[in-house]
Amino acid sequence: MLDYDLHCHSNISDGMLTPTEVVERAAGRGVKALALTDHDDMDGLDEARAAAQQHGMSFINGVEISVTWRSHTLHIVGLGIDPHYPPLVAGLRTVRSGRGERARKMSDALAKAGVGGVLAGAYQYANNPNMIGRTHFARYLVESGHCKDVKSVFNRYLVKGKPGYVPHQWAELSDAISWIRGSGGLAVLAHPGRYMTGRSGMGKKTMHELLTEFVACGGQALEVVTGSHTPEQYAEFGRYAEEFNLLASCGSDFHGPGESWRDMGRLPDLPLNCRPVWQALGLQ
Ligand code: AMP
Ligand code: MN
Ligand code: MN
Ligand code: MN
Known about the structure:
binds manganese (II) ion, about 15% strand, 2 domains, binds adenosine monophosphate, TIM Barrel
């Protein structure tokens, strides 16, 4: 089992815990090296680093950038980034800036589908209003009795093809990678298995094209072990990592107790053919 968790969220984006609470939970569950990777925002890093120091845990500055590639939304994790690098700071500000209007459109679309007045409720769940997103809508729709849990809200209302889904233009793939690399970080394609599932998911040919472009843009690693992958997908993406000469990363993608695919803590080992990303991060 691995005690590296290189992907998780605090309430700076759509996690439920503060950065300090995330670190405490990780420490309590045996994590030795942690990266906080909030969506499109780096404001939790100072607090998390200070908490990690208190627990004697290695801490890596991270971020998870929302990207639009062709018709797909992708997530690119940056590890070992410099949160003061101006192009990264400015780029993320631009990515965040569309979220308010998107939230209004989501609320309007849900109202048309018979679920009225959810905007204010969703904002109640957004500790950082600049980062309002689908998860905050989902939590509110659970609380107000529309669905039994967050996953059901997504399946019924918030994924592509459902009434509350609003298409959105995020960052360009090449920009996200260059912000990360320019700041000294490593660019990781997050949870690739999720781009291949569902009716609008990509097939193998498109995944090859994506990985080819990701590498050409300077992408360095693939998330092989993540909370939303099955053991078969660990093997499948381990092979992709080998084929494309990418390092392999791992992380829980934890968002909150009882809500995530996987809690923080020990993760299954990477497949044997993988070269772990932490070697390039200077961790043992
Ligand atoms: P947003 O950036 O506002 O589009 O929200 C994306 C976030 O929604 C992801 O990071 C996940 O936390 C969550 N999410 C996306 N799809 C699902 C799903 N099918 N079930 C549960 N959560 C999801
Ligand atoms: Mn999320
Ligand atoms: Mn993600
Ligand atoms: Mn994530």
